[in-house]
Amino acid sequence: MICAGIDAGSRTIKIVLMDAETKTVITKGLIDQGVEQEKLVLDLYERLFRDNHLNKEDVHRIVATGYGRKIINFAHATITEITCQAVGVHHLLPEAMTIIDIGGQDSKILHLDKDGKIRDFSMNDRCAGGTGHFLEVVAKRLEVSIESLGEMASKSKTPAAISSMCVVFAETEIIGLLATGKKREDIIAGIQRAIAQRVAAMSCHNGGFPIAFTGGVAMISGMDTALQSVLGHNVIVSPYPQMTCALGAAIMASSESVRARL
Amino acid sequence: MNNDPRQITLTEWDEHYEHLQKKGLREPDYGGVLSRHVGDGNKRLLKLRYDNSAAALRLWNFLLTEEKRLHQARAEGKKIVGVMKDLGTVPVMAYSLDNVAAFYPDGAWWIPCVMEFGAGLLEVADSLGIDESFCPVRAMLGAFITESHFPIPDKLICSVGATCDDFSAIAQRLDALGYPIMWWEIPHRRKPESDETAVKLPGGGAAPKSQIEFVMSEFKRIKVVLEELTGQYLNAEKLSAGIKKANQVRRCLAELRNIVFTAKLCPIGAIEMLVAEMLAIHFCSDQNETIIVLTELVNEVKSRVQFGKGVLNADAVKVFWINPVADLQVMNLLEDCGGRICGTEYLFSHALDLIPENVPAIEALAMMALADPMVGSSVDRAERICADIRRFGSEAVLISRIPGASHCALEGKVITEAIHAMLEVSVLEIEVPPVSDSIHPTLCTRLEALIETTKRRRTK
Lengths: 262, 460
Prior knowledge:
The complex is a heterodimer of chains A (262) and B (460).
Chain A: E1 2-8, E2 12-19, E3 24-32, H1 37-51, E4 59-65, E5 77-78, H2 81-92, E6 98-102, E7 107-112, E8 118-124, H3 132-141, H4 149-154, H5 167-179, H6 184-200, E9 211-214, H7 223-231, E10 235-237, H8 244-261
Parallel strand pairs in A: 1-4, 4-5, 6-9, 9-10
Antiparallel strand pairs in A: 1-2, 2-3, 6-7, 7-8
Chain B: E1 7-8, H1 10-22, E2 50-51, H2 54-64, H3 66-75, E3 79-84, H4 90-94, E4 100-103, H5 111-114, H6 121-127, H7 139-146, E5 155-161, H8 165-176, E6 181-186, E7 198-200, E8 206-208, H9 209-230, H10 236-262, H11 270-282, H12 287-306, E9 317-322, H13 329-336, E10 339-345, H14 361-370, H15 378-392, E11 396-401, H16 411-422, E12 426-431, H17 440-458
Parallel strand pairs in B: 3-4, 3-5, 5-6, 9-10, 9-11, 11-12
Antiparallel strand pairs in B: 1-2, 7-8
Helix pairs in contact in B: 2-11, 2-12, 6-7, 9-14, 10-11, 10-12, 15-16
């Protein structure tokens, strides 16, 4: 019995196919988000079945999540990314009491109880400061790849002080810093610290420990240490940070399927 | 009672109106089909969902004809008093006199919202140097200058002191433009010191007697101004009668809130409740009619509760809503996402409490003025909110903010922390601009997440 979790995020689409009875991941996949969102979801969905020699008729339930969840018409249910993220991370890191999720266009803090249920959450989605998009803009401005940001930041001896968290103004600030001869690694380290401060300000201090770090930005090396430094606490990067939300959706689909069968 | 209570669109109301008329609907002179108000520029009405009862129809028509009522009052030679910033005390004084219509010019902040910026009021405020960095109440400036909404009042009375800075600046700009204001001061409510006489305030809390006495002296000044304006003596008897009448409104609202917020099935939607509660501030320019409108509404919800009828699903999550919202559509959205309102604090909770009738009238009003949540600390406000959450059994809390408006920049954080310290309920803070269409998906995600989270916690 296969169940699927589809996370139609702002920057990428992620799908997890799961064996509902054993709650084990059969396969997972990811593609960039685009204009024709439902078509892109369908393309990835079909590709996963094709590449893994699976039969779509074996699918019992599909749960869609993420910003684009409502346009995935073939999903049986939609659940917000907040709930799915909590379920996915709790599955992988059951001890986590706080989740920091930094995605392409928003960041979230989730506080969980010991059963993995959300006690509270806060989101930043009105401003690109504190999101993956900020890092993309920085990488582009500094003419480096986003993957190399962490490595470069680790070489920094004196991180730059970035005062603006508005992407547009920060870009201007970066230009100014470059003009004064500031090294790129120092600017990147400064930006990572600024993002960490921004995210930490979203009630991070009120949660329990340990803290799990997930979302696409958790894959960028250096961000976890920037967060640790700001929070003064250890931060555990979740396994498959880009996929945890889709994983949560797949788990919710599986649980519902199993419940329906009983 | 309507046999099938439900929420309907404005277009559906047109058809439903015909149906009600055929069944013998009796309406006051301001009655009529709701969609006609769209012709007045209130385009936002097209996007809302309304309760389908005759009582709700009367409520909406009452609200949406206030400007006409004020113009009619002017034509009838009544004195018009603009009561600014104060929510629920000076209007009681004004309505204690004959031939007076008092209203709340600050309410003009809602005009750009319901008219989807079509009124041009904010542009006027911009041109007067009060730009978007100020609270949306700046729309009031535009309403004064264009004179296209309410008639210019014969007297403007405005509180200053422990009021919001933005509003004070806007009101001062208005004064400088040639609209003289009678200012009165409301001090920041503080806790009585150990060597001071404490006075218990309506709704809980206390203030030092010296503060009550100070506000009483301010109300005595206002009394003189109102007497001079109307040529009538505002004696203790008249004031007491005015207080009794205001309490009639407050009793109706208390009953309405109690029935609706504690009912098993939600008997009426969030928007109608918001509109009803707002009548407490200045009676929508007609105190007698306010009592009739609210009584009809109370009867409607009573009968719905009695017959086990509601407008939302039985498992709707009980949400406590804090602060008025700029775009009413978001209240519908919360209901779409599976929530219902069970408890509110729209910054005028003191106007819902009974005015003491066992103390001299001026003293009673001073006590009410000092009970205003806006003149005290956000911690005090949070305490009252927590008490109401317990009383109504709310399962989650929604703090709604308006961009540019901040009675206390940190109120969201303060209230959230206080709730977390006292109760085990989820709190969500959202920011809602006057026209929120473009951020609906984002708002929807947050509201749905609040509902999901609360429902999952139910299974504990």
